[in-house]
Amino acid sequence: MSFFDSSPMYGVAEQVLGESLRDKRADALVATKVWANSRSEGQAQVKRALQFFGGRVDVYQIHNLANWLEHLPMLEGLKESGQIRAIGATHYSHSAFNELRKVIKTGRISVIQIPYNPLQRESRKISCRWPPTWGWE
């Protein structure tokens, strides 16, 4: 099993990855993102990504929390229909971690992508109580 992370922000990466995985899609976990300021732009991004990835995305994330209140209900609908398996949110800047904490506390996402490495350890400050069903405290 292989895990691939993409985004429409990365140029033609989604298209190239989709073409590369065409015959092996069942063996891969794919994460991508919606990164749009409007609902219609977000819907167009999601529609393209689903076409590239055979109608299924394993983890769909709201990139850098862009318009998250608008995109979250759309992603929840796609999850209910089985087109995506998990919903997440990302942000690269610790200055946005208070907003990310708000999203986490809604209980509506199950994945976060944040920088954490020896040089960037600010993400330790996201100290909210995770839903007990995740097993993290």
State the main characteristics.
single chain; 137 residues; alpha/beta; five-stranded parallel β-sheet; 4 helices; 5 strands; globular; disordered C terminus
What report would you give on this structure?
The protein has 137 residues and is an alpha/beta fold. It has helices spanning 13-21, 39-52, 68-80, 97-105; strands at residues 2-5, 28-34, 57-62, 84-90, 111-113. The protein has a 5-stranded parallel sheet with strand order 1-2-3-4-5. Residues 130-137 have low confidence and may be disordered.
Short description:
The protein has helices at about 15-20, 40-50, 70-80, 95-105, and strands at about 1-5, 30-35, 55-60, 85-90, 110-115. With about 140 residues, the protein is an alpha/beta fold.
Instruction: Return the string of H and E elements.
Output: EHEHEHEHE
Mean pLDDT equals 89
Summarize the amount of helix as a percent range.
25-40%
- β-strand number: 5
Protein structure class: alpha/beta
Specify Rg, calculated over alpha carbons.
15 Å
First-to-last CA distance: 28 Å
Shape type: globular
SS field, number of helical segments: 4
Strand order of the largest sheet: 1-2-3-4-5
Low-pLDDT residue intervals, each spanning 5 or more residues? 130-137
The biggest beta sheet, please?
A: 5 strands, parallel
Strand proportion, as a percent range, falls in 15-25%
